[in-house]
Amino acid sequence: MDAFYASVEQMDDPKLRGKPLAVGGAGKRGVISAASYEARVFGVRSAMPGFKARKLCPDLIFVRPRFDRYKEISSQVRKIFFEYTDLVEPLSLDEAYLDVTENKKGNPSATLIAQQIRKQIFDEVGLTASAGISINKFIAKVASDYNKPNGQKTVNPEDVIEFLEVLDVKKFYGVGKVTQAKMYQMGIYTGKDLKSKSEEFLTQHFGKSGGHYYRIVRGIHLSEVKPNRERKSLAAERTFSENIASEIYMLERLENIAEELQKRLKNNKVSGRTVTLKIRYSDFSLQTRSKTLPYFVSDADILLETARELLYQEKMRDSVRLLGISLSNLNTGKEKRKEKEKEEVEIIQLRFDF
């Protein structure tokens, strides 16, 4: 979807159409969740501090996020996806992978299917969407950003290598700002530059990701579309109106965060074993500290106690602007099956003891 949150706000309120708009970030400490294309002209982007966005665009309009509304629209869009294929892998509220190799419409052209889906979304929901079409998820993802907004890009099998060779490495999905800077320092600016490096070289300088970069620049990405994508973690966090330097005040905030996370875990009927404390300092640097427990938890008291232990694990580097708690290693999928198998083994052992 194109500038999803912002586009929903403009659709629901005609007064906002055609104007630079930012969702979230209105307060002194706020962060932009989404920016309309009118705002992006000024350089406003998601994850940008609100005060910085205001400097770039003095006429920027801030609106509060309405996640229930975004989820409602997202459900309508996904319903359309399932009219074409059951192989739908959501990445977020506004994005998903679709495998249309075999589709419900019997249409042999993925390009035409993308056009139909985009038209149907516009006709039934009222929003524009963009699409990337290619031989695997990685290239389709890169292509989906190519002709935004309200466009699509098809990369045919015979064009894959040429497409990747001329692409700036910063446009490779998975290459963040830090990796981009490192690649630039090494003289790796395009896919062709990246392709000239051996797998050994890339692994030496980028670890496990090096092998990934070696394969994707050659158009190799074997990940299938997984319709039942398992949730890997749940989190809650807070950005504060003023920096916090006292660990006592931090613990007070963490108590509220732990209670919020407990609610989300309860609503999703999951628990987990790995507690991670997220700390964003006043200079915007980020630090995480984690601990894996020997049992599954979802209780706020245990979450808070573990977060407290992680907070005091080492001295704080600076005052803090954001704190968060996340829980991973959830009892879904593999973890749930492992736990069930463990319980079955224990039952069998007890029976033998008797």
From TrEMBL:
Binds 2 magnesium ions per subunit. Keywords: Coiled coil, Cytoplasm, DNA damage, DNA repair, DNA replication, DNA-binding, DNA-directed DNA polymerase, Magnesium, Metal-binding, Mutator protein, Nucleotidyltransferase, Transferase. InterPro entries: DNA/RNA_pol_sf (IPR043502), DNA_pol_Y-fam_lit_finger_sf (IPR036775), DNA_pol_Y-fam_little_finger (IPR017961), DNA_polymerase-Y (IPR050116), DNApol_IV (IPR022880), PolY_HhH_motif (IPR024728), Rev_trsase/Diguanyl_cyclase (IPR043128), UmuC (IPR001126). It is found in: Cytoplasm. Residues 1-176 form the UmuC domain. The keyword Nucleotidyltransferase applies. The keyword Zinc-finger does not apply. The active site is at 95. Transmembrane segments: none annotated. Residues 244-271 form a coiled coil. HAMAP family: DNApol_IV. Belongs to the DNA polymerase type-Y family. This is DNA polymerase IV.
